[in-house]
Amino acid sequence: MSQTILVTGASSGFGLLIANKLHKSGYTVIGTSRNPEKYASKLPFKMIALDLDSAQSIDTLPDRLFKEIAQLDILINNAGFLVNGIAEEIPIELGRQQFETNFWGTIKVTNAVLPYFRKQKSGKIITIGSITGLVAFPSTAYYAASKHALEGYYKALRYELTEFNIRVAMIEPGSFKTNIMENSSTTLNRIEDYNSLRRKSEKYADFIVEQGEDPAMVAAKVLKVVETENPNFRNLVGNGLSVLITLQHFAYGMLEKTILKQLNQA
Ligand SMILES: NC(=O)c1ccc[n+]([C@@H]2O[C@H](COP(=O)([O-])OP(=O)(O)OC[C@H]3O[C@@H](n4cnc5c(N)ncnc54)[C@H](OP(=O)(O)O)[C@@H]3O)[C@@H](O)[C@H]2O)c1
Questions:
Q1: Higher-confidence position of 243 and 106
Q2: Which of 78, 185, 198, 244 fits a 20 to 30 Å CA distance from 163?
């Protein structure tokens, strides 16, 4: 029997590519969206409703899920969004929203499926983090904080779930061409002192987006992690990322200088 995989945020970007790739590879895939009815007839896999910001939606997820399938083997936590902008200019409420969705929403979905994984003494939880969960870039403070938080949380969870034969892994993509920028939030309390930096940061973000790579690379990496019995915790995707991470560990000052240089040239 083919394994069954739940992919959150399967209507767009990485999630859509991941779900399609897994479906084509013979897995039974269930995708989620806040508006599954918009996509259901167009996709080759089933879509169910999930809103990471709604406790009720997460609480009722297992019921809706197990109406469609008998057993769940793998959870792919992909859904998330980006709050963009200079930290001090972002209203705290929006920063809180970033954590509510990216961090708490992801954790709550994980907790919703864990009792099933523990009972069947098997399972795999793969979470789409980010390079921004390991380093940070200007204008990504809340996003980086939410992704750093996920790294720490799942690092601990990995130890706790070993005895239940539940594997935990992260995927850390660099910059990829998805709809993340179009779907980002940038409500700002403008502070004049930041006018020049804000302009530079916006140009820098354009530069990063232009450098964006083919998101199919991320779907391919996820398939590899799905098919590896004991995957590594950390799974970077993107050209040049291992250099960046090596720099982070051995020469953090150099990494900062590189980012500042790029920002000032933007
Ligand atoms: N693109 C990159 O360069 C990049 C790099 C590193 C990490 N990531 C991460 O990759 C993941 C996917 O992002 P993407 O780039 O593919 O962006 P995307 O194209 O904007 O897709 C985001 C997906 O998340 C879902 N989603 C957003 N907010 C949600 C909420 N509150 N509740 C439930 N679902 C929600 C959306 O579904 P609906 O709108 O249909 O509900 C959509 O399917 C995110 O976790 C992101 O942080 C992206």
A1: 106
A2: 78
CA gyration radius for the chain? 19
Mean pLDDT of 120-149: 96
Closest CA to 98 of 140, 60, 57, 131: 140
Confidence of residue 265 (pLDDT cuts 50, 70, 90): confident
Residues contacting 22, CB < 8 A, separation 6+: 5, 7, 29, 222, 223, 226
Q: Taking the complete model, does pTM exceed 0.85, yes or no?
A: yes
Q: Which of 18, 43, 81 to mutate to test the pocket of ligand 1 (most atoms within 8 A of CB)?
A: 81
Domains of the chain: 4-194+213-239 (3.40.50.720)
Q: Residues 170, 106: contact at Cβ < 8 Å?
A: no
Sheet with 74-77, strands from edge to edge, namely: 46-49, 28-33, 4-7, 74-77, 123-128, 166-173, 236-237
- Report residue 207 CA to chain centroid gap: 21
Q: Please identify, by atom number, the ligand 1 atom nearest to the C-alpha of residue 10.
A: 43
